Amino acid sequence: MATNWEGSSADGRIHFLAKDETAETEEGNATVSGGTMTGSEIFMDSSDATHPEKHSFTATRVATRREGAAKRHEFVPTTFYRRFSAENKPVLSVAPGDTIHATTVDAGGTDEKGVTRVLGGNPETGPFYIETAAPGDTLAVHITRLRLNRDYAISDDGIVGRGLDSDWAVKMKDGFKNVRWHLDLTNGTASPEKPAEHLTHYSVPLRPMLGCVAVAPESRKLLRAPAIQAVTAGTWISMKSSKARRCTCPFSSPSP
Question: What is the radius of gyration, based on Cα positions, of the chain?
Answer without folding.
Answer: 26
